[in-house]
Amino acid sequence: MSLPPFTLAEIEERFDDMFVEVSEAVMQHLTQFDIQTQDALLMIIEKAASTSSGLAFQFANRLQRAIELMEIETIEMWLDQAIDVFDSKGLYGAIEKLDELESVASHAKQKLTGIAFEEVCNMLEHFVTGLNGRKLKIETDKKTYTDTENIFLPGMLNHFVEKDDNFQLYKCTVVFLWAQNWFGTWRCNFNEVFSQFKNPARAQAWFHMLEIIRLDLKIQHELPGIHRQMQRLNELAGHTKISDINISGEVGGVITRNSQSSDCLNLLAQVYHLELPPLNHYCGCLLADKVELRREIRLIKEKELFRQAIAHVLEDKKDKAASELNDEERREISAQQIPDPNMPEGFKYRLELDGEPIEPPDGVESLMSSIIQDLGEIPDDYLVAAGDGNYKATADEEKKSDDTNVWAGTYHEEGAFLHKEWDHRRQRYKKNWCALREVNITSGSTTFVKDTISKYSGIIKNLRRTFEILRGEDKMLKKQPYGDDIDIDALVEAWADSASGMEMSENIFTKMHKEERNIALIFMVDMSGSTKGWINDAERESLVLLSEALEILGDRYAIYGFTGNTRKRCEVYPVKTFDDDYNDEVKGRIANITPQDYTRLGVFIRHFNQMFETVEAKTKILITLSDGKPEDYDGYRGEYGIEDTRMALLESRQQGIHPFCITIDKEGRDYLKTMYGSASYVVIDNVKQLPLKVADIYRNITR
């Protein structure tokens, strides 16, 4: 038996609890619905009230008309859009969005068969990450195009009756725009070429069509599954398949899978006067002006970064500063082509010094790939070492502002990293919600490190001995076709297969095998105010012991402190980067780690996830050392903070990163299992035991 609907008095009481004033007509209108509908609508208004009472008032007074036009799910979506605008533009911007009620309702009808960008953006981001080449971000825009660093897609696709077909259209569009970048569409100065024609816009449109034909052949060869989807969508839409487009007898067959974008430019004069064939849904448009601007800035930046990386290599090889190298020495590194069928040109470059291959610093492989995408080669002038070999992921000249004044002005100030944040109440991300900066930590006296080494000298000797054994340790491989001993489990399994009439497996041996360790570790250290005193000392001692042990093991590692005060001021402190040696400078930074503000964990995890993208390692580990649950000054606490952290850690795992947490919070078991999973955290009850446990924990999780 269903409950009776809420009365007018009960509805009025709900609004009083929300501290939202609305007209009696609104409340009276709600009395006509059943209790389930009433409760659903009141919960939506409560969501608005949790953001702003002013927003809730504006929303509630438009609710009567909204109910006439939309289903409850669409009403909630409409509010979510208004809240997103409120987050970035305030109440007046949110009111403008609420006033778009009629268009939102019309848009919702299309959405019954269509699919919104918000529904698929995370899947598309992971999808494009799996493709080759420069990392591309996914954004929305009224036009569909790429500027070589971003792919811009429409906010809604409803070309087809079935939702999955519209999702496949999103994927095919992403692939086609990615192909423009990967297969060298943008390697020419288009404006210079197009300006030679009477109608430059028509010349650009024809170049786009010729490129579509060329890229279709490339995709057919490289990604046949996606190409079949493209063919199917063309049939559904009634479009001509790209492979069937017939331009001219003179041009037909000239464009092949091995053609370059320059070949398409050379054909422009022959096709310029012809009628343009219609475009397919997934081909997007060509915006050369936007590409030229991005490309010009990137070429300057990446050339300097590459030259700095080469200088860094020469400094290591010749044991002297890059500023001391003469002109001949600066040119000693060469780039040799070696076959690689995975590259569009069929080759990649290997750096060599005196005819011998050299291992480039972290991130340089992806940097070389980006340069080749733009230019098709590594030019000779890129192979001249820069005068200062202090290679960093971001060129020094980009850091224009003083670290002590980086928070002047708005949080969108140039130089900040903007990261999304998961709002579990809305079940969606807040885009570019947190602003993060890397802030230098000064190096102090190394006395603390020396005292720690002296205090734990016996333990350090044992750790070094243990880690030396671990470095040379053989691992047992099971189910091998030959080996040193019988694998009993495999033998039993094979015998059971034979008894049931199946062929008996030959893989019934074990053998010992020495594997090269290829591990990269980022150690993120909580610098929140709650770590003051004993905890801070224990954290720093832990870092000393871990560093001493890792130097024996040879694993690559970085140490970053993190703290913040609201979403607008999130800070990470590079204590030791992957490129830093464990020297007195780094030891002085460890000694200078001091407690500061709050612990907004999600943004820092996402920042280190992003940092790992430039690190080439088989195993990537992110260890958090903290004293408590996620918490910040602006409401980032409780379930909200835990759920955002959990989502950030899920993103880590999707990128192949192994997260682990070490905490001294005795209540940590209550929330860490939710965030990290049952096997990816450890709670240390006694803070004094922390330095003794950290290195041992690392040994266990990397065996």
UniProtKB/TrEMBL annotation:
Residues 321-333 have a biased composition (Basic and acidic residues). Residues 321-344 are annotated as: Disordered. Residues 520-701 form the VWFA domain. InterPro entries: NorD/CobT, VWF_A, vWFA_dom_sf. PANTHER family: NORD PROTEIN. This is Nitric oxide reductase activation protein NorD. The lineage of its organism: unclassified sequences, metagenomes, ecological metagenomes.
